[in-house]
Specification:
The structure is a homodimer.
Chain A lengths: L13 E6 L3 H12 L3 E8 L14 E3 L12 E4 L7 H9 L3 E3 L8 H15 L2 E3 L8 H12 L3 E7 L2 E2 L1 H8 L4 E10 L1 H8 L8 H4 E9 L5 H9 L9 E6 L2 H7 L5 E11 L5 E11 L2 H21 L4 E3 L14 H8 L1
Parallel strand pairs in A: 1-2, 1-4, 2-3, 4-5, 5-6, 6-14, 10-11
Antiparallel strand pairs in A: 7-12, 8-9, 9-10, 12-13
Helix pairs in contact in A: 1-10, 2-3
Chain lengths: ~350, ~350
């Protein structure tokens, strides 16, 4: 990786801080460096800062010192996990900074929103939560499809892509050295919705799961396959295929983190519901974390603008005028994008 | 057509007026009657009101008396044409009403926006322009795809669907009794973009045109076909097929106004542009005017809410937080749509 896209001569207005430097943090670094209206001020880490080296030589600062940087940062993009980091981190930082996160624990979103709202309102800052691709970008597809066709049914299909949670679940099985799991949408189910039917699907009807597994030497492959296929919630509700491959093959063919999916809504218009219509929104991504990062960066631009207007409190992408996500001026948008 | 969906017991809050009762006006009537937070107060017409009968028995009032209805209407949805009606009508009405239109003359959008902005700002009202499906809904697809993948190329394909402008152009040829023209996207061009190529297309590469023509008795069919295929701007830049059929066949097989299309963006992420990604947004509509109407009604909901907040001036869908288009409450959106 290089840092070739940077043009330091262009005036940059928004100063971005990254909190957490994993896959998403690195993706945010790449996306910010390509955004001509932003500059990357610092990466904050809970590790020893001297152990973290960024691609574009951004200053790396201890998380403990983040409070001293209030005046140097316009928006913090939080790149921690939804399970243990973001529930406390987003509210904590929203008191002092405009913040963006990709919180994705659907059932806890209302609670997380309330916590961020309290802190951000108190601090006069904006916090936009759940800005990944789902929740986030796909949520926008869902709300726009629903607004256009209020009388209808929506379906979200994920994949073909790597589910890191499911891959991890396989790796925890005894005798498994490594694994990669692909979530695959069932094409026949997509086609059924496209024809204007409004089917009620089971989990099995919509997705199947493809597993590539590296077994430890001497491991019982039949037992591993059985353990995968019967794992509750993760695999049992789906048609699951298991293929044993070597570590070399896994490294060679399954190293990436591609993902994607489709939001599909089928709805009626007309006085007697006589017209069928479908709205379909699809993503096909070579890199799941880099696309997530790209959405986070667009959301950071919106947070900055909303806070500059005097707004504060928690928001989701549902609350953001699309123009605020764009690097283009109002005149450019009216002349070329509308 | 019936009016079966109405549930008059539900509390309705927004009072909508329709200006112009053609295909779009009728579609707005159907969509408003199904929206539980709206009621239809009146249809305004420049024809003799006694000659206009609405499906749901809405009061029909002369356009000349519209000024007396300022206090009875929350949002006016303007269903006139972009060529001769909306350029004067939207600014005129924006001085006294929140207004929505589907102005679609792309090159004149900046001028129309400025005219509506001046009138609406002066009157303390909101005017949202260009709220059809293109410009409008497809514009939202374009801006969201661009914001997510700023380093990329966007393509808009239209069809398969009936172009009324092209059908009218054929009807004006001597010897033509009736005609229907379908705009058809070239599937190979879509596939090329989906593979991550960034092709530069000519008009011919992206769309072809299918014409079904009813010739008058004794007309010179070869001359008609030649006149169609060589018509500048409309047909000459495209591969065009012409099929002569009877009026009965036209009425039977080509009576509808289906349309649709795809906005497709292909873009890179990563420090070295090493990841390809595509975002694809498709519509497949049995009725073009009824879907346009559905977007207009969602935009009316947003205009009402923005004006209730004290906002005024001209807007486009780029300026509207998606939540404002939705009939769902904030709590429902957070819990189920995000």
């Amino acid at each position: 990786m290089t840092c070739s896209q940077i043009d330091r001569k262009v005036k940059r207005t928004m100063r971005i801080g990254i909190v957490g430097y994993g896959n998403i943090g690195k993706g945010v670094e790449a996306a910010v460096e390509k955004a001509q209206d932003m500059e990357l001020a610092a990466v904050f880490t809970r590790r020893d800062p001297s152990s973290v080296k960024t691609v574009c030589d951004v200053p790396v600062i201890s998380y403990d010192e983040i409070g001293s940087m209030k005046d140097e940062i316009d928006v913090l993009i939080l790149c921690g996990g939804s399970a243990t980091d973001l529930p406390w981190m987003t509210p904590e930082l929203a008191a002092d900074f405009n913040v963006i996160d990709s919180f994705d624990n659907h059932s806890k979103i209302p609670e997380h929103f309330a916590n961020v709202d309290a802190a951000a309102s108190e601090g006069g800052k904006i916090g936009i939560i759940s800005c990944g691709w789902d929740p986030g970008y796909f949520s926008l597809a869902r709300i726009l499809a629903d607004a256009a066709l209020p009388d209808g049914d929506s379906y979200t299909f994920w994949g073909r892509g790597v589910s890191q949670g499911h891959s991890d679940a396989i790796r925890r099985i005894e005798g498994v050295a490594d694994a990669r799991q692909y979530t695959v949408p069932v094409e026949a189910a997509l086609d059924k919705v496209r024809t204007g039917e409004h089917p009620e699907f089971t989990a099995r009807d919509m997705h199947h799961r493809e597993c590539y597994v590296v077994a430890e030497e001497g491991a019982d492959k039949a037992a591993i396959e059985e353990a995968i296929k019967t794992m509750p919630a993760y695999f049992e509700p789906y048609d699951t295929t298991v293929e044993f491959i070597t570590q070399e093959e896994l490294n060679e063919k399954h190293a990436g983190l591609p993902h994607g999916g489709t939001v599909l809504r089928s709805g009626h218009t007309g006085f007697d519901n006589e017209f069928n219509n479908t709205v379909e929104f699809s993503l096909n991504l070579d890199s799941n974390p880099h696309f997530t990062s790209s959405i986070l960066v667009a959301a950071a631009r919106a947070a900055y603008r909303m806070n500059q207007e005097g707004q504060s409190g928690a928001r989701t992408l549902f609350d953001v005028p699309p123009a605020y996500l764009s690097h283009q001026s109002r005149e450019e948008l009216l002349a070329h994008m509308l």
